[in-house]
Write a structure and sequence with these properties.
Layout (H helix, E strand, L loop, with lengths): L17 E3 L9 H7 L1 H13 L3 E4 L5 E4 L1 H33 L2 H4 L1
Helix pairs in contact: 1-2
Length: 107
């Protein structure tokens, strides 16, 4: 009985069956990335080692590779861009609430 080779990145799943689901490599198989972008393949291996890595099977029975790091960066950039606008909205709301609740009219 011959055993299938185990990938250092995808384990028992064949690298040609797992596709990247983010960034400029979205839709490319791990095997294609290993052949054409060895630096990115090494990056993915490091991400797997530190636990920022997941392979999930979709409803279409496709195995997709995700990185938790991309989610954190997206969340941080939205927070960073949303932070100042939220603060200015908060200031506007504060000034509006002051305008709408003058003590002399309610008493």
């Amino acid at each position: 009985m011959q055993s299938s080779p185990i990938s250092p990145l995808t384990g028992i799943l064949a690298e040609e069956q797992v596709v990247v689901d983010f960034g400029e490599y979205e839709g490319k198989s791990v095997m294609d990335i290993a052949e054409t972008e060895p630096e990115f393949y090494q990056f993915l291996l490091k991400q797997k080692e530190i636990g920022n890595f997941a392979i999930r099977r979709t409803k279409d029975k496709i195995f997709k590779l995700y990185l938790a790091v991309t989610v954190e960066k997206t969340t941080r950039s939205s927070s960073a861009s949303g932070g100042p606008s939220t603060a200015s909205s908060g200031e506007t709301q504060s000034s509006q609430s002051t305008k709408h609740t003058p003590g002399t009219l309610l008493s």
